[in-house]
Amino acid sequence: PLGEGFAEPTDEDKLAKAPQSPFGSPEGADRWAAGNMADVLLGKGDYGEAIKHFRTDTSATMPYLAAVHDQMRDKDPMAAMKFATQMRDAGLAMADAAPEPPAPTLPPVTQAPVTNPPETTTPVPTQEPTPAPTPTQDPKAPQAPQDTRQVSSNEDKDQRGAPTIGKISSPVPNATVRNDDSGDGSFGASRDDDKRKHKGVDLEAEAGTQVTSPIKGKVEHIGPAYKDPNAYGGEYQAVHIRGEDGRLYTMRYVTPNGEDGAPIIKKGQSVEEGQSIGRVQDRASKDRIGKMKNHVHLEIKGSDGKHVDPEREVGAKRKNR
Length: 321
Prior knowledge:
Distance between the termini: 55 Å
Structural class: alpha+beta
Low-confidence stretches: 96-103, 141-165
Mean pLDDT: 75
Shape: elongated
Largest sheet: 7 strands, antiparallel
Helix content: 10-25%
């Protein structure tokens, strides 16, 4: 027993003891880049891969990590404290960055004297209190992914199989499948009067939204979004990234340029998961029906050349029209 009056520290107690800036001051950091990294990290239950990345990334300065932590804390304080703890354990934060929850203080345990024959009483020595061990979490321990997808009632579960959530990052925030009056953007949806199937998934995003790499790899090609380079005036582009897993990841309707028009990435460049690779183009303005929502078309082609369902891998949500 933990003793009378003991209470396990609440989340509020733990957060109250966690410092506001476990990595120091965020002054001078690129908050836009830090916000993108914070969104990527908040989608993960464990930060082992992030720690490997930060060990080698020369841009991961203390002000940058402080800005990442601050933005995580604004959205999910408990996740931010866990991130700070694992980074501290890896030697990438201040020594007192994220204190462990305090171990319970136990009252002294004593036993009444044992009486044998009436003429002799032998006292039992007082036992020193033994503090309960503070539970620690192995940063490498895998976290069970949570299936947060909203599955429509007509989904073919047998065909899709058990969902694999969060194997890769979504190239745009919220990972919501387009489903509008212009059509269904899910993987395998009918196209051209059922003459072909949709080989990717359309993830809703406003024009100009930043697009990030869903995987660590290398930019293999940047070019037209369609086989016919003159389709829609040749305006739309696609970025193709070869992942370290050998698969080809294609994002269509993405300009590889920043807001200033300068290229963000180039062919042959190595990219990290969550790194900016461009912005969403305005595809909706040239929709034949006029009711399409802007989106990024994400395709994944395995090393065997077969298309893989990206909807499952990013944990995309579905919504009714």
